[in-house]
């Protein structure tokens, strides 16, 4: 979610690019994303470019807010401003 | 026990978030690296075309000015692209300083090699040889950048080097025109390719 938060609001990233940036396996990233999609934090868009399937990920507004709240609570816990 | 662990867990989570955020910012900073290649491709293309024109007109002094003015424009362009990219992504290349050192070193050693050749006295270089010397030093820079950033840059450097030497050996009569074409294909073509390949999203959404 932190990686997706770094993108501008509404921007998407391709699954492969996100996987490479985070250094995760396909399966590991997929399972994370499915969980986040279920709670409405990320949007997964599947499409075809010619015959190639492509998957694009973006953070929803709900996801952005949840991430901001989460980091805020972490900061408060650590007494950081 | 759980309560005691909470701050350290929070700290760990925060570190992970910062790291993930940093990685994405770097990826965002790198995705338009091809713009530098497009810029230099254009500079070299114009440079070689103007060299050919001035050679045909017999204005050899103008050729020297072409290769002073155009690289200066290129350097200004590099600064503008870097500032623009940094503003957009708020993240610089982590290897930026090393890339800067590579180019400073290459310019320095390029002039040393050139000075030694001139100092030898009985050796004189013609226009093609001078062009090959500086172009291939620059291509060595691309190979070194390729080691830091990605193999595509190294491939552009190596292919331009090989083609330039072949042109210098076998196409001397059309050297400038051939080099203009090579730079157009390798740099501008390579630049667009890198921009597409390193883009985080390869499809435009409406």
TrEMBL record, chain A:
This is Winged helix DNA-binding domain-containing protein. GO terms for molecular function: DNA binding. Keywords: DNA-binding. The keyword DNA-binding applies. Residues 4-78 form the Winged helix DNA-binding domain. The lineage of its organism: Bacteria, Pseudomonadati, Candidatus Kryptoniota, Candidatus Kryptobacter. The keyword Heme does not apply. InterPro entries: WH-like_DNA-bd_sf, WH_DNA-bd_dom, WH_DNA-bd_sf. It comes from Kryptobacter tengchongensis. It holds the Pfam family HTH_34.
